[in-house]
# Entry
Amino acid sequence: MVRLWRTPLDLDAVQRPRGKVFFIPARCKGCELCITYCPKNALALSDKLNEKGYHLPEFADPDACVACGLCEMICPEFAVYVEEVTEEAKSDE
Amino acid sequence: MTQLAQREIAETHPRDVLLRQDRLPHIWCPGCGLGIALNCFLGALMKSGLDLKKVAVVSGIGCAGRVAGYINLDSFHTTHGRAIPFATGLKLANPELKVVVFSGDGDLIAIGGNHFIHAARRNMDITVICVNNFNYGMTGGQLGPTTPTTAFTTTSPYGNREHPFNIPYLAAGSGAVYVARWTTLHVRRLERSMIEALQKKGFALVEVISPCPTLYGRRNKMPTGVEEMEYYRRKSVIRHGADPRDVEIRYEGEIVVGKFVDVEKPTFIDLLPNDNR
Amino acid sequence: MSNNGKGVLTGEFFMEGDVACAEGAIAAGCRFFAGYPITPATEIAERMARRLPQVGGVFIQMEDEMASMAAVLGASWGGAKSMTATSGPGFSLMMENLGLGIMTETPCVLVNVQRGGPSTGLPTAVGQGDVMQARWGSHGHYEIIALSPSSPQEFFDLTITAFNLSETYRVPVVILADEAVGHMTERVVIPPPEQVHTVDRRKPTVPPDEYLPYKAEGDGVPPMAVAGDGYHIHVTGLTHDERGYPAMNAEAQDRLIRRLVAKIRDNADDIIILTERDLDDAEVVVIAYGITARVSMLPIEMARREGIRVGLLKLVTVWPFPEKRLIELAGQVKAFVVPELNMGQIALEVQRVVGSRARTIPVPHPGGTVHDPKVILEAIRSAAQ
# Structure
């Protein structure tokens, strides 16, 4: 682990990116690649099934998501994507 | 934050603009890597700066041969092994086109092997994406030209007794000016290599090592897409500039990935004997 | 790649058949050739290699005939009029992508300068054994157009016709030449550009979002957008619907195959070209094509001198088969004599069409050389009895 030798002056201004994961359930085939390779373990297998009978992933830990987009790239089905969430957007809710 | 915890349902995906949405979901099995390769390819196309009206995708036959049918660009699903010569004609008739061949290892390296080496030799100005899943998937999991020695397939029930092709070595030895290999786990690097290959003048090859859990993985101790991807995670080594001779993939062995060749050479079109290039 | 007249080598020449074919192609607007050397068709490739760069076209020598035919299809979808030329062994290898050309309705021309077969056979000697292969050589059921020249001049003319037919009906057109015509050198007249009639494929007139690439118009032929036109076409060798998308069911197969067959059969009257000689009073008709039609002239003349009322029906178009004309003639004549450099291919077709209405007398010959005119004369005599 790298330790910072000083506290960055703009620490308050820097924000960790946050993301929101979207699913297109009809396309999912339950391969679990998005869940397995999410670096933040933000996704989990749900007990919900889609119309073809595949277990769908769910966005289990939204706080963990940093909008890295790996789930979007690794999904072979074009069934998952991420949108980065801005603070403004959050405060609107 | 509680709203965010709910499942977020969407109808369309950011890549859909380049997909024939009316054909989704695609035909590939759960855990198959073809969708990932296609996903990275569409990302590469979007970031490449190419005029997408002038991009044509040509596929051969097999699971990877179906890629052309899902891309919402000019796309051609040709005969088994003949994607490269078809692409050659397309490119030469209209050199303004960026012509991409997207097909599988059986199609490009076995039945189409002769076309592959000759297009590389001529430095035909096409980008070739070769998805290698170590077997013939569409026909049910038979031995292919890339099946590692001792691997099990339906036509090597006692273990494969043949030596596989090392695709980067074959391409480099035949004259390809760009050769890279990634697995479907290396999505960002794969996308970057695809962008480079699309922007390269001449015969550019990207080999994509991809899971086929249903037909290859199941017979070789990796019955799911996740397990095949775990093999890639454990055994792949990034070695840019590696000598292509040294990147053969052995059964359960190391998978050397990276960019192996990136050189400049006049293309077939550069050398045409007329003033009409 | 336009046919601006530059390509037409107007003048009178002492020209080899194969060279005349290449000149015909260039005059027709052909700007792409992919091929592989093979006797006795190599001279076509050699001529194209020299001539295409002069007119803005591209020549490429491929690694084999499968690649050649694939490249020709690709070039057609790139917007070029394209051609390949080969002989029997290469023709066999091209059957695969000939099928793709038929299924995807790709205009192009495939020249087969026939030699003796099967297999390597007689590379430098004449044959006409590929007539049925031209008709049925690729798998599945289809209709095709095949033309057969009898002289270098006709080889030039018919190559233009072949391009025009392929552009009109969106079908690969085969030129069934033979070694004797391909290697024959004689007078060829190439007209001025304004007298060369050329046809270009119909383009879509609707915007991309309304375009259905495989929706046919009245003549059974769909307008053709090519790569780069902005129509985002999908083209597949799988059975497909009007959008061009794979459609794996019997209904789609029924619609597509019936249309592909009908666009040739229903337009057969416009496609078929026949040359008729002395048929008005004929009681015997010699049916021949290619070099054999020319060889038949002498025995026909000799028989006429003997008082036999014999004429010639030369099949310029071999496929589609001129069934209507044959049935008409069958009511008028005693017999058809069918000399050909194979063991009876068109003879069987004649028999099929005329049935018992007239006798069919095959005059088979395995090739290697042309018929002895006396053998044909003998057949005419026996037909007249």
Remarks:
- The radius of gyration of chain A is 16 Å.
- The CA atoms of residues 1 and 7 of chain A lie 16 Å apart.
- DSSP finds three helices and four strands in chain A.
